[in-house]
Write a structure and sequence with these properties.
D-amino Acid Aminotransferase, Chain A, domain 1, single chain, binds adenosine-5'-diphosphate, seven-stranded mixed β-sheet, six-stranded antiparallel β-sheet, binds magnesium ion, Dna Ligase, domain 1, alpha+beta, Rossmann fold
């Protein structure tokens, strides 16, 4: 029998381009090549699409696009639902399934998902609607709060409000310092600042508005950062064992996430049973009401008094060997390969969406 072809898409015009390369390297290295034919599709930082037929290491090292003998330009053809390859001759490829291993803008925010939906291709992970909502921290919060999932107190600010700076300062000071200033649509902590005093506000706002026209201002939570890997397997939502992030420093910023060797992943998270129960229940509610599909990672804060606050959903979480998402399910008995296989198989079989929506 012919092996199903899985098209891994990586890179893209996002500030998380490098993170995507590392995730894609891990997925490409671990996918069961005895079971699947793998097609690697890279998108450069400039947005050029190529099939890459070379060594996986070149994806990791970001040298894949320099290997002219191994790259062939391609485009996604919406009308006939295939990938058109511009080689010596022009021909079409129709993968059985696409796995976008991309993070941030264009890859995780519903845009590539919308393109794949238009072309009628099956793909792993959340669809365009839920990806777009999960990408936006403000919209996700609105949904969470509307279904009774508690979040940090916050206010939303628009770029236009910079013109009336005093009113904006006033709005933010009502939350009470310290606050976190976060672009609504970013990831990997890019554009985020902790602001301890009003005097630091302008720099933080500038940084956040550089990434996104809408910014969320949140009370700073003093507590543990606890993460759950969530997937839909056989039409049922599975929430992994919870993990806790241990780090030194003010917050879990970009350098801490990707360069700091002292970060620790504590699995299982050292939290009270009732906090764990609350988080697991919130994950199910959120997965259903945000119409997630396939997989995601959901992040929470657990305060010293045991209160649980939802932070965010990552619809395509980091997928490297050291990322929390695979680590959590590996802790629950999957191997890296079987986890990838489960995600793909559920998508092929149409069991990547929950059969029964949560009622509350
Ligand atoms: N309200 C908050 N209170 C305390 N820490 C926060 C808050 N919001 C964000 N952080 C810190 O900033 C990090 C990144 O914020 P997050 O909302 O997860 O954005 P990203 O999508 O960039 O990961 C968090 O992991 C946490 O360390
Ligand atoms: Mg985060």
């Amino acid at each position: 029998m012919k092996k199903p072809t899985v098209c891994l898409i990586f890179g893209g015009k996002s500030s998380e381009y490098e993170v995507s390369l590392h995730s894609a390297f891990a997925v490409a290295s671990h996918i069961d090549k005895g079971k699947y034919e793998v097609l690697k599709l890279g998108i450069t930082k400039d947005g050029e699409w190529y099939i890459f037929d070379g060594e996986e290491r070149d994806i990791f090292n970001d040298t894949w696009w320099q290997k002219s003998e191994y790259i062939t330009p391609v485009t996604l053809d919406f009308s006939i639902g295939c990938i058109t390859v511009f080689d010596k001759t022009v021909y079409s490829l129709k993968p059985d399934i696409v796995f976008p291993v991309m993070h941030g803008a264009f890859g995780e925010d519903g845009r590539i998902q919308g393109a794949l939906e238009m072309s009628g291709m099956k793909f792993v992970g959340c669809g365009s609607l839920s990806s777009a909502v999960c990408m936006d921290k403000y919209l996700t919060k609105l949904v969470a709060e509307s279904i009774g999932v508690p979040c940090a107190r916050s206010a939303v600010a628009y770029k236009g409000e910079l013109a009336s700076r005093e009113a904006l300062r006033e709005k933010i000071s009502k939350i009470g310092y310290p606050v976190f200033i976060k672009p609504c649509r970013s990831g990997s902590s890019v554009g985020i600042s902790k602001v301890n005093y009003a005097s630091e506000l302008d720099t933080a706002l500038e940084k956040a508005f550089y990434c996104s026209d809408r910014v969320i201002v949140e009370e700073a939570i003093d507590g543990k950062e606890v993460e759950a890997a969530v997937m839909c397997d056989g039409g049922r939502i599975k929430v992994s064992t919870l993990g806790e992030i241990g780090y030194f420093g003010e917050f879990y910023d970009y350098d801490t996430k990707y360069k700091d060797k002292t970060v620790s992943y504590i699995i299982p998270a050292k939290i009270e049973k009732q906090c764990e129960r609350a988080i697991r229940s919130y994950c199910r509610k959120l997965f259903s009401s945000l119409e997630c599909k396939g997989f995601c990672r959901m992040d929470f804060f657990v305060k010293k008094d045991g209160g649980v606050l939802f932070n965010e959903v990552n619809s395509i979480p980091g997928f490297t060997d050291i990322s929390m998402f695979p680590k959590l399910f590996i802790n629950d008995g999957y191997s890296f390969s079987s986890l990838i296989d489960t995600l793909i198989t559920n998508e092929i079989n149409g069991t990547s969406k929950p059969y029964i929506m949560m009622m509350w």
